[in-house]
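README: folding subset

This subset contains proteins for which both the sequence and a predicted structure token string are available. Records are stored as plain text. Below is the entry for Acyl dehydratase (332 residues), shown exactly as it appears on disk.
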Amino acid sequence: MSLLYFEDFVVGERRHHSLPVVRVDDVIAFAREYDAQPMHLGESDGFYSEHIGSGWHTCCLTMRAIADSFLTGSRAFGAPGIDKVEWREPLRPGDQLSVTIETLDKRESRSRPEMGLVQFGIETTNQSGTVLMRQVNWVMFGTHEPPLEERPAPIPRVVPSAAAATLTGKAGTDQQLYFDDLTVGDTQILGSHLFLEEDIITFARAYDPQSFHTDPAAARDSFFGSLCASGWHTAAIWMKKMVEHRNAMARTAMARDGRTARLGPSPGFQNLKWIKPVRAGDTLTYRSRVSGKRPSASRPQWGIVSHHNTAHNQHGECVFAFDGVVFWERKP
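--- output ---
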């Protein structure tokens, strides 16, 4: 089959792909590695009374469907980010996901005739037709135009202005127990993570099997010049560090007060930016800053917290950022 180029995408066309049934073991394995909250591990939780999968698991499975549907057979140069994701319903053990990818828009690059951008609207449903997730994002593709260079230079990507604010402070673990204790502007260092080549390849083989994520030799000849992590891997590690940090806070609170606040689910996120490639050997430090808060109108025991999140590499460069929202328990 011939490669898909920018010119081959038609606005309004739809592609469909189905995935195997999601098993209980699949949900738990992903949760243990990246999002070890009780509701994802099948343990008792106060927000959901049933076992549900991580929203990031839904994103990664959706990415796998996109890759299998057409992306690995295209001249793709990666995605600059995700405009928005809405988690409408939880992933549940036993679900069989179907993903529809609609081409919404496309733009030629005036300065880079060897590239173009295609915008996709993506909808993930279960076997009952229930929408679990909606996503909108752009992907860069090569054109049939011969490249000006053997390997096109990377496209500069703008660091969000809010990213700098995550470097300005760190809240103590006793300052963010319940929703009521949160202060807008509080910033926490979630932790650091070293991206190893074998881990990059393992994640990509499962969820994002593009050659510049799975094959070091092919990656050297790619747009990126060397093996780099899937953007979803970068995001999943953010969730991992967030949960680890929250668990440490919970242990401190339990030892001090005999109680701790719980986090609920997230309805989604927006403005996710993959600003620079994350390569084997890079160490990322993740931070989260409270950017807003409000009581929940439908769940009086919970509040809704907005947060701006970043990852900086060992050189101090911001490589990843997004704006998230999460339910946070209020004081009893």
